[in-house]
Amino acid sequence: MFDFIIAGIQAPIFLLVLTGMTVGMVGGFIGVGGGYMVTPALIVFGFPGYMASGIDVTHIAGKSVVATIRHRQLGNIDWVLGLAMVGGTMMGVEMGVRLLNYTKSIGLSGIALLTGSVGIMVGLFLYTQIETHRAQKKIQELAREGKTVGRELSTSNIPKFFQSISLFPIIRCHVARIVISMWVVVLVGIATGVLAGFFGVGGGFIRVPALVYVVGATTHIAVGTDLLEIVVSGGYGALRHFASGNVDIMAVFFMIIGAMFGAQFGSIATSYVRGPAIRYILSYSLILATVGAFLRLVYMLSAQKYEFLNFFAVVFTLGEMIFLCLFILSLVYFAVRHRHGKWVPAWIPSLVVVP
Amino acid sequence: MAEPSKTKGTIKFVVWTAIAAALISYLWIEYYNGTLVSWYYYKAKSDGWAVNANAFKDAGKDKPAVLQIGSFETIEGLQAVPVKKGDRLPANTNGIIDKKTVEEGKRVTLDGNTLKVTVPMQVKEAKGFKFKDTFKHKGIQTSEWGGAWCVAFILVLGFALGMMAEGFTDMCGLKLTKIKHYEGVH
User: Fold this and answer.
1) Which residues of B touch A63 (CB under 8 A)?
2) What is the mean pLDDT of residues A118-132?
3) Nearest-by-CA chain B residue for A6
4) So what's the pLDDT on residue A227?
5) Do B68 and B95 fall into the same domain?
6) What ipTM was assigned to the predicted interfaces of this complex?
7) Where do the TM regions start and end (chain B) (predicted)?
8) B106 phi and psi, to 5 degrees?
């Protein structure tokens, strides 16, 4: 047990490092901060609620630096796209926080938050699942025809529409190979920022699909670019949390140590898989987080009568971290087997890359 | 002789490990000598009494904790220092009992030169989570510059750890190459 002087509690270092490691792995792989998983975990470890979110946001900023460095090495970051989006995201986060304060002032915040997040997450899950399934089938068809299938395949036509908007200034994103109006990028930043600010999360789980399905980036580039965004928005969030006295820097430190290992593995693991594999894991992470949020919504709507719902919500959230890590590990394991010509399940070849 | 990329990787790993170790040592020392803690419990956000809430966490209605009021430089045990909004807090403070709470008299009462604490903790709820509401962290203002320093520190630490890991893989001959995003049908 470690004595956290600022938080005024004692908590096991091992659990903090482990949490940092698992969330780092998931975050490095799908490009999210993982705030929706970490905050409940920290509360379970005994940190006060307000401090849990402060520690969470600050560790996300530090962890994202680690993951961004690795994604830069892998060529997954489009700096122009990321920097063009940052301004919009920050503006959106402020608008989201004000919207949240408004809903709080009319006594709606808890239920509005949960209903909204459940709705958005289910919508994103369904769209990502359907589109990714279609993409996977197309990869299988192309492979049967003997064609060399690229690392990325998206069947969505939405990016074509957004890229055709020719509103000055137009930006050229060389890494992502996109030519698009800066206003589209800024508006996507604002929209995802509003949702992030309103729901009190980093917003990666909304921004990665937005970068793929609206802007038209490949999934790998969306992941790397989003992590760059999280460094900036997470850093700003951390500053606000420090000013409000919500952070014990030592807890952040232990989580970053764990995240250093996890984020390395998660980031490097992206080089073993195709875009649809990342999108699948992103969609599963969305739906599992939704189930946790839904249990909590029912708990709140039932006037907090059924304590077991709250308990299951926490258990589900913690279980989700482990499930996603196992999923990523198994994908890498099968990718390595496939590279060596060994047996793999039938659904694996369309999701992994053979150099 | 090692390959040039491995030699470069080794240098990168050693340099960034040294930087990361220096940063971690700095954090450890500053946390335990109280500098980072004093940035956290920096100023009073409201009028009231600065206290160390750990000293009376076990108090109750049947055994109230009696805090001696005075102008102490360091709060030791059952002591309280009157503060006004914006005052620097004495050492070892970790919370403020504000005037309003004392005026209400439900948890703390003023009795001459002492404060009598009867309810040091109550269970409250926020965002669906129940939590223990104590006097710890109450009414305190952190140092803005201290906060900015800590955020900068975390980002630099993340950078050092990231570069260290990159150096490690290069040193082991696992130098990663850029992903070819646009090869084949896509």
Assistant:
1) 158
2) 88
3) B37
4) 93
5) yes
6) 0.86
7) 12-29, 145-165
8) -80, -35
> Which residues constitute the domain of residue B163?
4-35+149-171
Interface A:B, Cβ pairs < 8 A: 160
Is residue A355 included in any domain, yes or no?
no
In terms of CA atoms, which chain B residue is nearest residue A254? B24
Q: How many domains does chain A have?
A: 1
pTM of structure: 0.86
Residues B83 and B57 in one domain: yes
The per-residue pLDDT for range B22-64, each reduced to its tens digit, is 999 999 999 988 888 888 899 999 999 999 988 888 888 888 8
Q: Round to whole Å and give the CA distance between B177 and A221.
A: 15
Per residue in A36-79, pLDDT tens?
778 778 877 888 777 888 888 899 999 999 999 999 999 999 99
Residue B167 falls within a domain, yes or no? Answer: yes
* Best residue of A242, A260, A274 to probe chain B, by most B CBs closer than 10 Å: A242
pLDDT, mean of residues A147-176: 86
Q: Which residue has the higher pLDDT, A97 or B59?
A: B59
Q: Do A74 and B128 touch (CB under 8 A)?
A: no
The residue of A3, A44, A50, A69 whose CB has the most chain B CBs within 10 angstroms, and thus the best one to mutate to test that interface, is A69
Could you tell me which chain A residue has the CA closest to the CA of B134?
A48
Domain enclosing residue A301, as ranges: 2-339
- A218 to chain B: nearest residue by CA? B181
| Averaged pLDDT of chain A | 86
- Count of domains in chain B? 2
Q: How confident is the model at residue A285 (pLDDT cuts 50, 70, 90)?
A: confident
User: Which pLDDT score, from 0 to 100, does residue A25 have?
Assistant: 94
Same domain, B10 and B79: no
Shared domain check, B51 and B19: no
What residues of chain B lie within 8 A of the CB of A316, using their CB?
none
Nearest to B186 among A152, A231, A249 (CB): A152
Q: What pLDDT is recorded for position B127?
A: 55
B106 found inside a domain: yes
Q: Cβ–Cβ of B179/A271 closer than 8 Å?
A: yes
On whether both B161 and B89 belong to a single domain, the answer is no
